[in-house]
Specification:
Ribosomal Protein S5, domain 2, Rossmann fold, nine-stranded mixed beta sheet, five-stranded mixed beta sheet, about 20% strand, elongated, binds adenosine-5'-diphosphate
Length: about 625
């Protein structure tokens, strides 16, 4: 096939434009990015060869080489990793939009000052154009005899050609260096001393040897140190931090570092990090997570999901096992008993670490919670075995103060006559904290947890109770706030009201029979005329809303709730005297108001506003005379 010219897609063009014209500082990080790609390529080849041994030539040893040439002003970065097919080159390096490129552009203002973040976005390759005005990539995929040459000046187009790679499988990247200028932070990247110090600074942890021709013989530039195999007392804080950065490309400090060795029935070393901040793609569906897995120091894979439950997906790090068989495949790992045990152990350790953080550094824990609390909460419905431990780690907003509270703290503040732990669910703090459902509880001085994360509905559902105390939604039927004594006192009043208001209750039930299950007298309202509550066995209105947002519905239609009316509100006394026609209208308005009160949408907002306007006119007419 002849050499072909292709266009970069619009996003990559923009990205290149930023890389070439706007990233001024830290241009040296291009080397880290390309070395890390080379190292990943070697890891991939090693992993694939576990199941396809023929991919590795007999004497194959992993190797990355740097070949600087100050005469031709070029730097070659050569690896004998997995290589790419021509399709992969176009996909990974050329045209297909990658989510990272978009995200990178959106962060552009901050990026301008921090080009070292580029690797996080999965677009590290392009950093080569910070220092080179022409980049040539020659690659050949393991198991294939077809090589591909890709070349670009970073100007919007690239060329592709079919040329076998003389060295066989692997990738060679040739950078034709821009003229170096101190003030542009372009150092002489063909100088061996410069390269040596950059490898030490950024790529020392790379697990495969990075070699360069020294004065007499080849030199290995990186120490490849496996700090996780050392004892924690031998590793400095700085080393832990550097390794975290190497692993995650996150330039912030990790919040917590946990380094330990498990012994006994199974042996492994683990180095875990709790990050301080979410990565940019945290909430994306395709976010990779998991720990890196090593077996006896041999890298097996990054992002091994089987080593962490999904609700701990923010945890980064690695596990190096001495018991697992090197012959594992991704599919087999899932069923491996030892892997399950490692996951259990790592989960316990992570939960204990968070508990420790909560007890000893509350404010750091609150920061952690803001970033990852919603994720951790998913564990309550999904990991029954650790439910108890997870409950202790929960933080909630509540009506007692602006500070978040644990359940234990809530229980300690419970009033003597308070039976249950009360909560309300909704879309936002401002909505729930003004909710009329709180009226009676406020009056009694009972604290209410304000649950506004979508996952909370599932959390409280799964929890049901905490240390013997029931979790009770204040939006459900059966809210039992009064003591026996108070009840007795009110019983008489209630009976009386039921008799007096019977005509209103009956007429409302009839008007609203398609909307609600029942209309009853309320004990939870003081100022508001009416509200809707879910039967104790039905999903709440908020849950139904969440499900329908997710495209799921309960048996195809929403479940009717019970309407509660406030017997002390003057509107019902008036309603007793109103005409049947008025009663019908008022019932409809009250129902619409109750929907608004619980945070639901009105089925017919136009009708509602017409009805209100009509009431205003009537009110004005009746005050005229
Ligand atoms: P990232 O490495 O973060 O995915 P890059 O832009 O650096 O983003 O690289 C894009 C992709 O190109 C890589 O994911 C990998 O599939 C491929 N790639 C880059 N360099 C190499 C290499 N030296 N050998 C094999 N594949 C490579």
């Amino acid at each position: 096939m002849a050499k072909q010219v292709q266009n970069f897609n619009a996003e990559i063009k923009q990205l290149l434009d930023i890389v070439i014209h706007s990233l001024y500082s830290h241009k040296e990080i291009f080397l880290r990015e390309l070395l890390s790609n080379a190292s990943d390529a070697i890891d991939k080849l090693k992993f694939n060869s576990l199941t396809h041994p023929s991919l590795l030539p007999d004497s194959w040893q992993p190797q990355i080489r740097l070949e600087p040439n100050s005469e031709t002003k070029t730097l070659k970065i050569i690896d004998n990793g997995i290589g790419m097919t021509q399709e992969e080159v176009t996909e990974f390096i050329g045209t297909i939009a990658r989510s990272g490129a978009k995200a990178f552009m959106q962060m552009n203002a901050e990026m301008k000052t921090k080009p070292e973040l580029i690797g996080q976005f999965g677009v590290g390759f392009y950093s080569a154009f910070m220092v080179a005005d022409r980049v040539t990539l020659h690659t050949q995929k393991a198991g294939s005899n077809d090589g591909t040459v890709w070349e670009s000046h970073g100007d919007g187009t690239y060329t592709l050609d079919n040329v076998p790679r003389p060295e066989g499988t692997g990738t060679t990247i040739t950078l034709h260096m821009k003229a170096f200028k101190e003030e542009d932070e372009i150092q002489n990247f063909t100088d061996k001393w410069v390269l040596k110090s950059l490898v030490k600074k950024y790529s020392d942890f790379i697990a495969h040897p990075i070699k360069m021709q020294g004065e007499k013989e080849d030199e290995t530039l990186n120490s490849q140190k496996a700090i996780w195999l050392k004892s924690p007392s031998e590793v400095s804080k700085e080393e832990y931090k550097e390794f975290y950065q190497h692993l995650t490309q996150d330039w912030n400090e990790p919040l917590r570092t946990v380094h330990y060795k498990a012994e006994g029935t199974m042996e492994f070393n683990a180095l875990l990090y709790v990050p301080g901040k979410k990565p940019w793609n945290y909430n994306m569906r395709d976010m990779e997570y998991g720990l890196s897995l090593y077996i006896k120091r041999v890298f097996i894979m990054a992002d091994c999901k089987d080593l962490l439950p999904p609700y701990l997906r923010f945890v980064k790090g690695l596990v190096d096992s001495s018991d697992l068989s090197l012959n594992v495949s991704r599919e087999l790992l899932q069923q491996d008993r030892q892997v399950t045990q490692i996951r259990k152990n790592v989960t316990n350790k992570a939960l204990a670490t968070l508990k420790d953080l909560l007890t000893k550094e509350r404010s750091a824990y609150e920061d952690f919670w803001t970033e990852f609390g919603a994720t951790l909460k998913e564990g309550i419905p999904s990991d029954a075995a650790n439910k108890e431990k997870l409950q202790d780690l929960l933080l909630f907003h509540s009506t007692s103060s602006d500070k978040m509270t644990t359940l234990d703290e809530y229980v300690a503040r419970m009033k003597e006559n308070q039976k249950d732990i009360y909560y309300i669910t909704g879309d936002s703090l401002s909505q729930v904290s003004n909710s009329p459902y709180l009226e009676k509880l406020k009056e009694k001085g009972f604290e209410v947890l304000l649950l506004v994360d979508p996952v909370d509905e599932w959390v409280v559902d799964a929890m049901n109770e905490f240390k013997g105390k029931k979790l009770q939604s204040i939006m459900r039927e059966g809210l039992d706030l009064d003591t026996a004594e108070e009840k007795q006192k009110k019983e008489e009043e209630k009976k009386q009201a039921e008799v007096t208001l019977k005509p209103v209750l009956d007429s409302m039930k009839k008007t609203l029979e398609n909307n609600v299950k029942d209309v009853v007298l309320s004990e939870r309202l003081t100022n508001t005329p009416a509200c809707l509550v879910a039967s104790s066995s039905d999903p709440s209105a908020h849950m139904q809303k969440l499900m329908s947002q997710m495209g799921k519905e309960y048996a195809g239609q929403s479940i009717k709730r019970i309407m509660e009316i406030n017997p002390n509100h003057p509107v019902f006394e008036k309603m007793l005297k109103a005409s049947p026609d008025q009663q019908t209208k008022w019932a409809e308005i009250l129902y619409a108001q109750a929907l608004l009160t619980e945070g639901s949408n009105l089925p017919d907002p136009v009708k509602f506003s017409q009805q209100i306007a009509e009431l205003m006119v009537q009110a004005a007419d009746s005050t005229k005379h």
